[in-house]
Amino acid sequence: MEKPQDIILRTENLSKRYGERWAVRDLNLSIPRGDVFGFLGPNGAGKTTTIRMALGLIAPTSGNVYVNGVDMRKSPMDALGMVGAIVETPAFYGYLTGRENLRLLARVSGGVSDGRVEETLLLVGLSNRADDKVKGYSQGMRQRLGIAQALLSEPELVVLDEPTNGLDPSGMREIRELIRSLAGERGITIFISSHLLGEVEAVCRHVAIINHGSLVAQGPVEELLRRESVRLDVEVSDSAAAKAILGGLGFISELAGIDGGFSMRLHMDRVAEVNRALVTGGVDVSSLTPNAVSLEEFFLEQTEGVSGDSGGVRKEAGA
Amino acid sequence: MNTRLWTLTKVELYKLSRQKFSYLIVAFLMFNAVLVGLGSRIFPRILAAMSGGGGAAFDGYTFASVIASGTFSSAGAGTIAMLAFSGAMVASETDSGTLKNILVRPVGRGEFIGAKALALFIYCLVIVVLMGVFSVASGAIFYGMGDLSLVETGEVYRTAPEMFANMLVAFGMDLLSIYTVGLMGLMLSTMINNTGWAVITSLVVYFPVMFLKNFDLFSPWVFTSYMDLGQNILREMAQVKSKSWTPDIYGFIAVNALTSAAFITASLVVFKRKDIQ
Predict the structure, then answer these.
(1) Which chain B residue has its CA at the smallest distance from A48's CA?
(2) Which terminal residue of chain A, N or C, has fewer Cβ atoms less than 10 Å from its own Cβ?
C-alpha cells in the first residue's frame, strides 16, 4: 500500500463532459513518485483530456487533481510550479531560436537561470543547434526542445504527451535513455502518454489504461502482466492423447497445434495443472514454456470490446 | 507594479520586437503619415477629398495640415492595423499551441491577459509617438515650422507653442482611441481560437460598432464617436474653423476609459473560464 506522500499526482473521480458525452468519467489515477508511469489508451480514449485537466488547461466537470497533495483547483500556481509538461506537439515561436525560446519560457517560469537553459540544451543534445531559428527545426528537434522546456524549472513531475512522436528509431532510443536517466538519476517522476506500447513497456514500471474515458487497469507492469494469462507451449510424446486431455480442461483457450506439441492460453496459476493432467494421462511432457503476455496483448485485451458506458471491469494490480 | 506581471509584459514586448508583423504595421503607418503629408503638398485637392476636407483643405500651406495627416493615418489605417494586430494576439498563441507552453507554468490567466494588455499599450504608445515624430518631421520639411499665419492677411492664427500643445493633446487622444480599439481586438482574440477568424471577426465587428455613432441614442456612449476628435483638433487649426470650438475631451476620456475597462474585464472573464484545447 502506497502512502499519500509516495504519490506525486492523484486524480479523484475526475470527469469531463462535453454536452451529453463523457470524455473522462470518474477517473482515479495514482502516480507513484520517482517512477516512469505510462498512460495508455486508444485514440479518443480521453488521455489528452485527462492530461489537460491535470495541468489546469481545462476545467473538470467534477473531481479533483492533486499534485504532491496540492489541489489544482484551489492552488493552481503552487501545483504547476512542481510540473513540467509537453501537451501534444511541442509548439514554439518559429521566429526565435531554440535558445531564445527557452530563455523566454525560463522568464515566464520565474527563477530559472540562463545557466539552467544551457544545461537543458546540453541534456537534450541541442546545444549545437540552439542558435538556429525553431522554424528550421525537424520534428525530432522540436520534440527535444519540448523536453528541454519541460525540464527548465527542475520539476518534480514531468508530463510528456507522446514524447517520441516524429522521432526516428535512434531518436526514440535517445529519448528513452533520457527518460530513464531523468527518473533513475534525478528522481524525477515521468508521466508518459503514448500509443507506442513497445516504448512504454521499455521504460515504464507502472501503467494505467484508459478506454472510453474510464480507467480499465492500473498498476505495476510486471504485476499486471503476471496476473493475466500466459501463452503456454508444451512439447509432448503423444499428440493425439494430449489433444484429448487438453480439450477436456475447461480453463484453457486458443488451443492450437505447433511442431511437436500444442500452444494454448491460460492463467499463469494453471500451468502446473496442465502438466499434472498430461502426466497423469500417460503423456510425457518434454518441455513446458510459459510465455508472458506482452503489454500490447494485455492492452488489446483491456480495450477491445469494452463498453464505453459501463466503463468495463477495472483491474488494479497490487490492490 | 506586480513584478510577475512586468516580467510577463517584458516577455510579450520581446516577442513583439522579434516579429516582422510588428514592424510592418509601424512601417505602414509611418509611410502613410509621410505619404499623406507629402500628398497634401503635391495634390492638395485630392488629399482634401480623401481626408474629408481635412489635411489639405487650407491649400496645403499649414504645418498643422501635415500633423493632421498623421492623425488621419492613426484614425483610419491605424485602426485597421491595430484590429488586425490585436485580433491575433491571443488567438495566434492558441492556434499555434504556444499558449499551452505558457499556461502549464505557474502563470495566472489574469496575469497573462494583463501582460498582453500592457504590452499592447506600450506598442500603441510607440506607434503614436513615431507617428507624431514622422508627421511633425514631414510637416517641418514640406512647410517649415513657426506660427500658423493666414495666407491672405498674414494674421497669426495659432502660435507655434499653441500648435505644439494642441498637437500633444491630439496625439494623446489618438493613443487612447487606438488602445481602446486594440483592447476590443484583444477581447475577441480570447474568444476565437483560429488566428485568421479572430482577425476577420475583429475587423467585421468594428464596423457595426463604428456605425452606431450615427445614432443619437448611442452616439454619446460609443467610443467610435470620439475617434476623430484628436484629428479634429488639428483640423480646426488647419482649416481655421473656429477658435471658440472646444472638443469634448472629458466625454472622450470617460467613454474610452469605461470602454477599455469593459473590454479588459470581458477578456479576463472569458479567458479565465476558457478550456485550452
Answers:
(1) B277
(2) N
